[in-house]
Amino acid sequence: MFVLLFLVLLLIILLVSWLSFYLDKKHTNVRGPLPYPLIGNANSLFAIESTEFMNVLSRLEEKYDKTALIYLFSQRYILTSDPKFIEGIVSSAKLTDKGKSYYFMEPWLGEGLLTSSGPRWKAHRKFLTPAFHFNILHQFLPIFCKNATVLIKKLHNIAIKNCSTNLFPIIALAALDNVTESIMAVSFNAQGDSGSEFVKAVDAISTVISKRMWNPFLDLLFPLTSYKTKQDKALKILHGQTIKIIKARQEELKKMNISELVLHTKHGTKNKHTFLDLLLLAEVDGKKISDQWIREEVDTFLFEGHDTITSAITFCLYCLAQNQDIQEKVFQEQKNIFGHEFDRSPSSNDLQQMKYLEFVIKESLRLFPSVPIIQRKILEDTVINGMRIPKNTSIVLDLFNMQRDPRVYEDPLEFRPERFENTGRNPFTWLPFSAGPRNCIGQKFAMMEMKVTISEIIRNFIILPTGQVPILAAELILRTVNGVNLKIVPRL
Ligand code: HEM
């Protein structure tokens, strides 16, 4: 009798769940696979490895003409790699709210610029934008050059061993020094301390966050799992490091007797304050910014400003190793720019002349975008590109598969920097920095750092492939599970 009652109850629950999916689907004209009662389509995305994730998205988008509706349990998602749809979302001044996945970053980044939404994001963005003005970025060039020189020395020591090396962790340390010294005005000499706890902690927390994002059961039991212990350990290191940076800069400002933001000197020229000074000295609505707000923004910029660039530089070097003719063209461009002074550091003018290198970087970011997917949450019923989207839908913008779509790029898997010579292309088909109001605030900073670092490497070394194919993993950023192993040979 009890079993019968249980079965009837179960049947009713399944029927109600199936009916609610059926009715929900009527609110949109986006098509997708049939959801199963209770779990929706979680069976196809649930608990998959980060190495499979982009393939699963690609298969779903392919089947439903680039845009698919799926349900992860009761949560409605639209996955899209359609440039028109993506343009409608990213260019909208209204659709700026972040999707649920960003919630998993909150233990680390709090409500920093990347994760916040609504009025808080608007106020922070307005406040921080001047810190990324070209005139300020200009001052960072000597820092990038100094850290590139240290990197070259390290690479020379590796090159003499004449074996292949995973370049990812080596580049990561240089990128970390660049971001802390330029944006925070403090140095940790991460390149001198190769066992950097910070870099390992970023790796650990990225893994935990991406596991939580795609495994709702793990999220449910999270506090009881070993992932929580891993997260706590990583956060202790990451937050500890940030607090150290903030304290160090506070001490320096005290020593220099600077207690408030002075935007102009008494001679009328503009004072150039760093990003961290802006946070430490400025007042918003007549009040100093709270320590927690400062920590969250510093963490956000440390994360965004170091892991993304590491991924971009490393994959670019991989592409150059695979395409020796293109590497040679980059080298020739460097020779034309530097002439007899081949060892000097690049000036801003030199960087502007590195047009071919810029195409190379853009093409490698097309194939290997550091941020492969981004998410938005739609808060009110909306129509985009003829598609009806009900409120409370999460939209997954699949930049990775859009930039590899043969309907968007001819022979998409071929590495062809010349594609970017054509300036008449639709700008929404190349979105590694996203676009619109929530685009990457650090895009110019990133391009400058990448050019300096790759220019130095190519002037000093020939990069050779090793036959190893990187196995891509879409975690918080695009990385590989088997490193990016390349061989570097000093140029004579
Ligand atoms: C190759 C390097 C980089 C790539 C590919 C990249 C890519 C992106 C993308 C795609 C977004 C949008 C994310 C979203 O909507 O969820 C973004 C946002 C952001 N990026 Fe970058 N980024 C890079 C470097 C940097 C650097 C160097 C900084 C800072 C120094 C930075 C700071 C930020 C911040 C703060 C946001 C959030 C902006 C907002 O929501 O208003 N990024 N980035």
TrEMBL record:
<dbReference type="InterPro" id="IPR036396">
    <property type="entry name" value="Cyt_P450_sf"/>
</dbReference>
<dbReference type="InterPro" id="IPR001128">
    <property type="entry name" value="Cyt_P450"/>
</dbReference>
<dbReference type="GO" id="GO:0004497">
    <property type="term" value="F:monooxygenase activity"/>
</dbReference>
<dbReference type="Pfam" id="PF00067">
    <property type="entry name" value="p450"/>
</dbReference>
<dbReference type="InterPro" id="IPR002401">
    <property type="entry name" value="Cyt_P450_E_grp-I"/>
</dbReference>
<dbReference type="GO" id="GO:0005506">
    <property type="term" value="F:iron ion binding"/>
</dbReference>
<protein>
    <recommendedName>
        <fullName>Cytochrome P450</fullName>
    </recommendedName>
</protein>
<dbReference type="InterPro" id="IPR017972">
    <property type="entry name" value="Cyt_P450_CS"/>
</dbReference>
<dbReference type="InterPro" id="IPR050196">
    <property type="entry name" value="Cytochrome_P450_Monoox"/>
</dbReference>
<keyword id="KW-0408">Iron</keyword>
<keyword id="KW-0560">Oxidoreductase</keyword>
<keyword id="KW-0479">Metal-binding</keyword>
<feature type="binding site" description="axial binding residue">
    <location>
        <position position="440"/>
    </location>
    <ligand>
        <name>heme</name>
    </ligand>
</feature>
<keyword id="KW-0503">Monooxygenase</keyword>
<dbReference type="GO" id="GO:0020037">
    <property type="term" value="F:heme binding"/>
</dbReference>
<dbReference type="GO" id="GO:0016705">
    <property type="term" value="F:oxidoreductase activity, acting on paired donors, with incorporation or reduction of molecular oxygen"/>
</dbReference>
<comment type="similarity">
    <text>Belongs to the cytochrome P450 family.</text>
</comment>
<keyword id="KW-0349">Heme</keyword>
